[in-house]
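Quick one - first record:
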Amino acid sequence: MTATTHESLFPAQPDSADAVLAGLDPEQRAVATALHGPVCVLAGAGTGKTRAITHRIAYGVRAGILQPASVLAVTFTARAAGEMRGRLRQLGAGGVQARTFHSAALRQLQYFWPRAIGGEIPRLVERKVQLVAEAGARCRIRLDRNELRDVTGEIEWCKVTQTVPEEYAAAAAKTGRDVPRDPAEVAKIYTTYEQLKRDRGVIDFEDVLLLTVGVLQDRPDVADTVRSQYQHFVVDEYQDVSPLQQRLLELWLGGRDDLCVVGDASQTIYSFTGATPDFLLGFRSRHPDATVVKLVRDYRSTPQVVGLANGLLGKARGQAAAHRLELISQREAGPEPVYSEYADEPAEAEGAARRIKELIASGVRPSEIAVLYRINAQSEVYEQALADAGVPYQLRGAERFFERPEVREAGLLLRGAARASTDPEEADNTVPQQVRAVLSSRGWSSEPPAGSGAVRDRWESLAALVRLSEDFAAARRDATLSDFVAELDERANAQHAPTVEGVTLGSLHAAKGLEWDAVFLVGLTEGTLPITYAKTDEQVEEERRLLYVGVTRARLHLSLSWALSRSPGGRGGRRPSRFLDGLRPGSAPRGARGAGGSGGAERGSGGRKRRGPVLCRVCGRTLSEAGEIKLMRCEDCPSDLDEALYERLREWRMEQAKALGQPAYCVFTDKTLLAIAEVRPGGEAELSQIAGVGARKLDKFGADVLALCAGEEPGGNEAAEGSSEETEEEAEK
């Protein structure tokens, strides 16, 4: 996600404490040298806050002021903690603990449980949804899938805000929460859920914090042991702490003030989980003698992107807005943000895919491009559009790199090769040569395979390891294969994955802490951003901050778009997000085209044929969700799926994808296959009415699909015999 060279991936370790400070700007240097007393760093997006605090810790360690084992650095994601550990190691400050709140608390709880409680620590339940569902059933309260997720979220919120079931209704009303069920019902499910856990002797993630707090409060001897271990604390993303996490931090400190916090109130986007910027904003009042440093030099984004970000926050209101930071870009000028309006969501997705192909053709790597949306349900139409355009993509939050089967296998092979590399001729080979030799036996080659299917995904994983070995060898010329294997182990432990080529699809919440050369912010309409259930002023302001986070992920290219209707032929009554008013060119007239948009409202102008509203073929309701439109029925309406036909279609699709060298979804998505197996079309006209079966795919696959629906054998795939140029052309349509 971040463009890097081997120098930045594997920098030479500073040879002294003063060398740690080299390259820091005046404000970052002020952070790094403020090693005593409470310190508050207000750091805007892209201003190098992680650089400042890691150099602060490293400088303290290298100068002999801080003992590595006495420092606890806390952040909010395992990825961020891993990145921090990696940077500290490169700066010569190995041994510093960098963990999430939950990880640090769990480690302490596991260690002290036998002494403080006795026996073995209860088993940790990683996913509480099943227990919540059972609690609902015991209360005779039926929860659908969405309600189950939302009630689970309410229970989590209660626990991190230390709200007991009897207080839930009043607390939810006071904070203006959008409750998924009657508050009395939620409280009843919450009570039953806690009872189920006790009966089964299990705990959840929130219990880890609660129990650690309880042990530290009730056992002074345990608290003293922890405080003697850790004397210096650093908390990143401090605007996201919950009351429970703040209580745990206070117990760790035990009245001391050797604390450094870093945050930005304008990036508070997790209040629904109990996070609050109040502790960051009130830090100075709690610590009147605190050193406060503001980081406002933005090294990430161009002046054009920074100008839009500042303009967006300039219209904000509320407590967080009063503490906003005015960023100052340190980069050269770049292109203006692009605003595009489309007739419907499929047209918007196609427009984004078209522009992405242009960026890739101009030299932007797919891994340096992201499509960000408000809710995960928006991803499907972009997955389809990118697949149709032949553009590789990866879903943010999908399987971790080091957990992929091919990566785990490669690690084992490289470890074996490192142990066995006693041949003098082999020793003369460079690390990259040895890595290529090992991985070539498992599918890596100097040229990528055609298409973008499973074979290509496997190759991309192995290619990422090869590129990493090249960077590693360029930075450490005397390194051996064993050194590289050790580096892989360190990275796996830290979840510090190398870059895999593919456009990132992810939610705005999941994008926090990341950055790309080009960012597409899509679906920017009223009701989506701000989301329809954002009712109070503070909830709306949090939605604005969410858009701000999205804008500040872009280094160079920024595209903002919206669609006037959800589906083709829709009424077109949507309005662009209010957050863009006064920022996008010509934003006053309703329905005006965005300036600079290469797409515009394109559907029906030489593209695919416009369709009217899509109705559920079971109940007749107008469909709006992309997945329901593909199925041509409501998700909850009864299905008349022909399971045997569906399996035949899946087998046929697999053969087609293999022949074309493309992923299965490039032929038809699962939803389209389900719709076909439910409708069982008898002719081309009926088949063409199914979403996902456009004119090109009808011409290419229609005869085979209709034959399968009729119980006959398909006639073969003539398309697979075409040239690769024809395949690419088909993918663009």
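second record:
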Amino acid sequence: MAPNDRLDRDAVMSLDTRQRAGSSGNAAPWAEATADVQTGSGGLQPALSGNGFTYRHDWGARRGQWLLRLNWGEVDTRSQVFVSIAEGAGGGPDSGKFIGSARYTLHNVAPRAGGVDIWVNIEWPSDISIYADYLVVNPAVTGTRTVSVTVHRHSSVLLSEAEADRILGDMGTILQNDDTGPDVATAVQFVRNGAVRVLPATVPATIATSADLTALLTAGSGVKVVQAIRWCGGPGDNIIGCAPVGSANVNVAAVRFDAGQEGLIWVHEYGHNCGLGHRTDDPRAVMFPSVGSDHNVVNAAESAAYLAGPLNIAGKVLPASGCNCDMQGLQAPADVRDFVRQPWIEGVPWELASQYGEADARKLLDWLVNEPEKHEQYLGQIVATLGYIGSEIATGALIDFVRSPRTGRAVFNAKNIALIRLGDLANRSASQAAVDFLAQLAGDIGLARSLAAPQAAFEQLDAARTGVTALSAETLAAELAVSATFGLALSGSEPARKTVEALKHDPNAFASVNQAAGEAAQIADTVVRKGRSEYYRMKAERRHHL
């Protein structure tokens, strides 16, 4: 039988099947001995040196001799791999192992590039479960670790191979340089694996729902650049990067950004892949939750994680290192205008934005209403913060902004963010005007199409100039309707929750709204029953278990 390289079906060769005589019955065919660990001279050996990690795999029910091949990107020919096997208790790997009447024998362990193979024998007349525990120790890196990264882009996104190489080079520079006292120089470099690929047509340009994010993260390994991200653990705003905390491979979602900061965004999200959470004790940290030109500091623990690379397999999440999911220790700037100038990698943090009041909202309304062109790059943060503040004085301005004919990628993204955050505004101010507008837009295809028409024309012109695929008017209209659906879910009223429920089966709504309403209904239920603060706490927790 030829080897099958799929992770959960890698038992590829039945070498022999035997029945052990006398295996039936309850009598144990062995003697038992117990010994205490001797800690004197020659007892315990020195700690293993290098980057070590463990994994338990359920190989299913088997008997006889098998060659079991486990594919694991973090294993290579230099890895030291130790394996133990036994009969598995029912209920999955976390239920543990036990010693029964069957004899399990491990004959060989052979690490290879990209995995490890073992030869086992299970002496029992019928198939029984086998669990294998793997301890992998990779020798300490003595030179520069090279990470090969596959780069993908959505067909609507312009990203050349030269630009990808520049960003990958910046990732390495950020880690390799010893910039300040607390910074640890980390010998990791990143190189492109082949040509920049175009993502499958099944992956949308805008990540607006949990299903969209799943489609993106499962579209192969690597860095995947899309038009916009408005979901990372929940509906969000102005998200420029999102990645699982702990991953089997490089698996990063990102958007195009300021050229000087894209390397930071990619290496920050790759840090999540390596098991790192956010760190808020140093605003210069790479893993700080916002972008900054001086965010180039990694501490010793983070350096070790980057050198080890992604450690996980089969979706298991490692404990996040130093994760401050609730932005603990961060303080909002006194001037709200300084706050909205700060790009937050995974969206504007409601914990900080909601601390501002009506006087701050008036400052932001001045920018939004009187000089939006001057502050276009901050529009997403401006409208999100206005929603989080929750003053009803912003309701009309936000609705007018969504209805305006203004175009551009930053503008259209901000319009969608305004729709989501109108829900937060309604939650805090009980604005019926906000709820009514959201309900109308979510269910009225004609209104959504009319509001999306100016942006669709812009997309056509931009595509003709750059050669990328233009997003259709229908796609853009559906985006607005989906954003309105999530805004409704966040508004926190029982009537709004019922409207969201009805949208799940509304034949007159966009199909994408029907799908999004299923996710939005769960959010609405949480917000109604537990309140907005508890919802955002739960969202932050989910974010770190993608």
